[in-house]
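The instructor's notes for this session suggest beginning with a concrete chain rather than abstract definitions. Hand out the sequence below and ask the class to guess, before any prediction is shown, which regions might be ordered.
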Amino acid sequence: MTPEIEKSVVVDGPPEDDADAKVAKAPSPYIQAFKKPKGIVGFSLVGTLVLLALLSPWLFPGGYDEQGRDSLYTASLDHPFGTDQVGRDIFVRSIYALRTDLSLIFVAVPIAAVIGTLLGLTGVLSRRLGNASQRIFDVILGFPGLVLGITIAAILDPGWKSLVITITILSIPGFGRIARSQLLSEQEKEYVLAVRVLGVPKWRVLTRHILPNVLEPAVVQVALAMVLGIFIESALSLVGLGIQPPNPSIGTLLNASIRFMSVQPYYVLGPMVTLLLLTLGLNLIADSLNASLEER
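After discussion, reveal the predicted structure:
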């Protein structure tokens, strides 16, 4: 066997036909996740909520600040969760609050995923860089999330921007640690050692051989980070350091409902049900994706 053939065998692995056949036989774990009971329920819940949030300007053209004559009105067919202290429909405000929270996590979590994954993979380039990134993750994890959020809100003023930055920073370690653990696992495997012996550049080893194995568990972490982001927004807005009234968010509605629980007990149900359904759907999606990846 010539050296060229040996290299081809080491780097490329099985013949192309056999590899293609294996790929064709193995369904995508993401498609499999859709077929699981948890996945069906989770994707249905989240998909319905996202659709409601996107269509809210057309479904409720009066907007989230439209006032009626009846304040603190109890639940009815016209107002499923009643009205607030100035006669605004709590159901409508909960849908618009959902829109606000989704905009936060859909911006913050992808940014955190990119930054965290890149920091976690710096160990390919240098062991010192890898250790330095690990120390960054430790510092973020050791810092209380609520205190960090309060600090950022004090510097930038409470609002959407400060919440995005807080959620991004607190979500980075989750992605970084997953990337680093996958890196440490993959770089000791024979196929990675083989391509390194052949002189393949580090960036090519990273992008072609290690990164694809990092992305799959990172997708699961995306759903979990979104749940974290929703709770961060709720906690900070609950204490008045998140989204500011009259703009609705889950946290601001919870904050406002506390004062009127004895008068209008349905007030708190609007944001609570929204929070429950959204976090439940995201957790079911994460469980379904994780189970599909483990079965593969």
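Then share the key points. DSSP finds twelve helices and no strands in the chain. The chain has one domain: 29-61+82-295.
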